[in-house]
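does this look right to u?? zinc ion version
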Amino acid sequence: MKYLFDLHTHTIASGHAYSTLQENIAAARDAGLKYYGFSDHTGSDHQDAFRNSWFTNFKVIPREIYGVHVLRGAETNLIDYEGHYDLSHKTAAKLDYMILSIHGNTYETSTAEVNTESLIKAMKDPYVRIIGHPDDGRFPLLAEPLAAAVRENGVLLELNNSSLREGTHRTNTRENNLELLRACMKCGTMICLGSDAHISFDVGRFREAETLLEETGFPDELIANLTEEGLSRIIGDKKAY
Ligand SMILES: [Zn+2]
Ligand SMILES: [Zn+2]
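got this back:
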């Protein structure tokens, strides 16, 4: 399949990833992507002195590098049961898109009902565009209510390739993703493939995700990465820079 973009990637700014922005963009070009988005972690959960200023000087980054359109994002953390996250609205407004994910170091897990409700509250925030790796068994979710709310709120659900790779610290991801994909098919909910690359070699890598798409017979029309329209669903008119 021909994918246009990968918006879930990390650079060395995340503290536990190993490639520079430039290396990731070169990898995106080599993978044949038209758009590349970087989405480093927000918040103070990782010990990086330059964390906050990282998100405030993106203006120096050219919009096109190595023939690839560069999109500026963040992966923020859900921090409570009210749908709040750890990035200011002022900073979020300057990004092209934001992924919101549940991570154990910033969120105390609860029942599937409460976790789902917390994510649904977060979706109401206009800067939240993608719900990242909703497949981790350590933070149980209700697949169908989640898929329905994602559609209703005009955001996208991620199918995270790293979750499906051997050695992932996330649990029960294969089964959870199968359930989520089936719920998305039932509700007509659009998904977004994300590599969640923490090193350049993984940028644009969706091999494991593809296995599940095949297994469920997931329709191309519901995969954002295949069309410009799919990208517009995430970033609006921001690519018209
Ligand atoms: Zn994450
Ligand atoms: Zn990530």
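The CA atoms of residues 43 and 86 lie 5 Å apart. idk if thats expected tbh
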